[in-house]
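Protocol step 4 of 6: structure prediction from sequence.
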Amino acid sequence: MLTLQQIKENPTRIVERLAVKGFDAKEPVDKILSLDERRRELQLTNDNRAAELNRLSGEIGRLMKEGKRDEANDAKTKVAALKEEQKAVADKLTATESEIREILLSVPNIPCDMVPEGRTAADNVVEKTGGNMPDLGADALPHWDLCKKYNLVDFDLGVKITGAGFPVYLGKGAKLQRALIQFFLDEASAAGYLEVQPPYVVNEASGYGTGQLPDKEGQMYYVNEDNLYLIPTAEVPVTNLYRDVIIPADKLPIKNCAYSACFRREAGSYGKDVRGLNRLHQFDKVEIVRIEKPEDSYAALEQMKDHVQGLLDKLGLPWHILRLCGGDMSFTSAITFDFEVYSAAQQRWLEVSSVSNFETYQANRLKCRYRGEDKKTHLCHTLNGSALALPRIMASIIENFQTPEGIVVPECLRKYTGFDIIN
């Protein structure tokens, strides 16, 4: 979340920048400033009460030593009354601070200056394009038909066992999936990311820490009796490794990668976008997460983009990078770049990665800090990216590399699959 100090320093800029995200921040910002003024008044009153209590306590001791019991008893009566008043003030102070925090939690992150204005995905900016477009014949099949033809993924079995959006991978389809996971993990390790294996369920504090709560509560699967949530991405548990942690400056940057299954309700999704592997309730993904000093985070963001681009180049898939406009960005992001690959049989672009810098927004929620050379603690910047999400990568490989003889496996995956072609 935004810090109170950010809002106090330049409320006008906060309102202007959040308008780029389509969020009207004037009312919550004004309310926060008003509450903060009230908070400061209550804090001053509370401090004055405490000072008076200390003075009277010392006075009681002196009066008792001097044998002035009646005056000492009068002072005790004043102390009792002051304590009641101080408790009432302290309760109001706590309530005011809680109200400020609740409003801060409802305010999105500020988009950085590089974020273009716009309301929908149509306003996103194409930053870069790479890879070669496949030239498939008119009889090219979409991946859901190819999965059936080569017995790679059974969507009907998934419906039988669980429901729509929970596919069953079979045979070479399962091996291709596993090969992609291992390839992504090995590439991340080679790039200096430490692999971690996180839990697939998180508590409420973790959801608040990375901003899934309260913004995306309806999109997460909830384990009611245990008050736990199935993770929508490994970003949540991995970033929360650093919740309430003060990191020595010489330990930064921190670079982690993690494979996990991901679970998303995808409420409201329908139509062609949900066909086959295009949009699932359960899918696999390798995530990269970085904790950085603020002055280093945008260089780190470029390195993460280069890493994802390198994966797509090695897979031989056509791709482009989108710089998201304000209206298409997430609640928590300061800037996001989406990678999309071209699905030749569907003749459409499919998102396979989002790489984002959250600046201090998540770190403030997490209380993720580092100790600088000045010996003071400062908020870190957090970043993450998909490297990569598997379903649409699988779909693109299956579609783009189809031939009359079968589906050709990208060369970088063959040492993992043990086969060169699916037929």
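Step 5 (inspection) to follow. The chain has a mean pLDDT of 95.
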